[in-house]
Amino acid sequence: MSYAIETKKRKFDRILEALTDSASAASAPPSPSHSSINASTTSLSLYAASDSSKRRRITPPSKTATTHTSTPIALSGHYLPSSRAAFLQRLETFRHVTQWHIPSTDPVNAAAWAKRGWTCVDTDTVACGVCKERLYVDLNLDKELLKLSERHGGEGADEEAAAADEEDSFTISSEIYGSIVKKYQDMIVTAHAESCLWRKRGCDSSIQRIEGLLNTTLALSALKTRYDSLSSHSDEIPRIEPLPPTPLVDPQELEQFRLSGQEKPHIDALRLAVCGWQRKCEDVIECHHCFRSLGLWLYRGESPAIEKLDAIDNHLEYCPWRSAEAQDTELQTGHARTTTSGEEILPKKERVAGWVLVYQAITKDNKQKKASNGSRSTATSETVLGATSSESTTPEQREKKMKDLLRRIKEIKKPFNVKALLKRKDKPKA
Ligand SMILES: [Zn+2]
Ligand SMILES: [Zn+2]
């Protein structure tokens, strides 16, 4: 590493210290420069990658002006690390895109703070309802501050070194960003008062889990509620990206699915409902687990701003509808298969996202309906029924299901085995 870079690194370290010192000052108000940054990001292009700008553009204009007031939250003043309701109340305080600018992709995102007792009470400011500590969170690398520091503390930095610096500035900036994030990761715990219980233990790892998704009846009744809210104005529903097929997700199952007492459902509304979306108000849908809202008008019309709505990707990074880690529920997944030597390989267990669990409920419901109709359905519609909740089956049942699945897979493979077909044609009596 060159001398110039080392010098620059030391300077960056000092700036970092200054930044985090001001961050740890209990109730530092947002600086004027910070609000001007916010004002400028508001006008970012429609396709800006930043999470907060993405959220900003989809918030209906009429709503943004009224979302500043932070209403008192009933449960946030108590230490309730196992209460899902209390956690969701805290998480919801971070929903206002004009108040909270930390991207959901960051390790210090809203879910991380809410899991440790914090609520959002002001612009990028969190507070604990138990110990009443406050903290201003600022991940911005203030470029002006860096330039200023270069001008005033230029020891050992000649022009040549400055050119070399430029090359490394990106690397160094991301290093600084990493250290800032690391410091805030620690402060999620240490910014609580010494005596605060949130300092000792945060929420359980499963706190974000959407409940009831392994119970087919519950999962489908919640699905119907969401679907009905969406389909009441089905003309508003834009085109939705088809859900990605996986060993657990056979596109045909959604086509065949009928909600209780209903005709063939509106496929786009159904895709949205499977992925956890429901209507918030006219032309706006929302998620009750990451509190993201989407304006449907952006996806409609002759030349829509966005061609198709992706019902999965539009959840925030940490949403259990999208994140298998947040949902923290295991299923048996993957295709069972037989090796050439005849050895049976069983599927393994895997954590899946919330929407996949709803898809499983649909698949099971289709199967039950077929069974009760007594009609023999085509093999294709049954190929992906192997995955079941590992909680609700005995080893014997699992083994039986496994064998059924293997048999079906062998059956379904037959028509596509062209060589075998040709051979059979050659030797009609074989
Ligand atoms: Zn506290
Ligand atoms: Zn969500």
From TrEMBL:
<feature type="domain" description="NuBaID C-terminal">
    <location>
        <begin position="269"/>
        <end position="369"/>
    </location>
</feature>
<feature type="compositionally biased region" description="Polar residues">
    <location>
        <begin position="61"/>
        <end position="70"/>
    </location>
</feature>
<dbReference type="InterPro" id="IPR012935">
    <property type="entry name" value="NuBaID_N"/>
</dbReference>
<feature type="region of interest" description="Disordered">
    <location>
        <begin position="367"/>
        <end position="403"/>
    </location>
</feature>
<feature type="domain" description="C3HC-type">
    <location>
        <begin position="81"/>
        <end position="239"/>
    </location>
</feature>
<protein>
    <recommendedName>
        <fullName>C3HC-type domain-containing protein</fullName>
    </recommendedName>
</protein>
<feature type="region of interest" description="Disordered">
    <location>
        <begin position="48"/>
        <end position="70"/>
    </location>
</feature>
<keyword id="KW-0863">Zinc-finger</keyword>
<feature type="compositionally biased region" description="Polar residues">
    <location>
        <begin position="371"/>
        <end position="395"/>
    </location>
</feature>
<keyword id="KW-0539">Nucleus</keyword>
<dbReference type="GO" id="GO:0008270">
    <property type="term" value="F:zinc ion binding"/>
</dbReference>
<keyword id="KW-0479">Metal-binding</keyword>
<keyword id="KW-0862">Zinc</keyword>
<dbReference type="GO" id="GO:0005634">
    <property type="term" value="C:nucleus"/>
</dbReference>
<dbReference type="InterPro" id="IPR013909">
    <property type="entry name" value="NuBaID_C"/>
</dbReference>
<dbReference type="Pfam" id="PF07967">
    <property type="entry name" value="zf-C3HC"/>
</dbReference>
<dbReference type="Pfam" id="PF08600">
    <property type="entry name" value="NuBaID_C"/>
</dbReference>
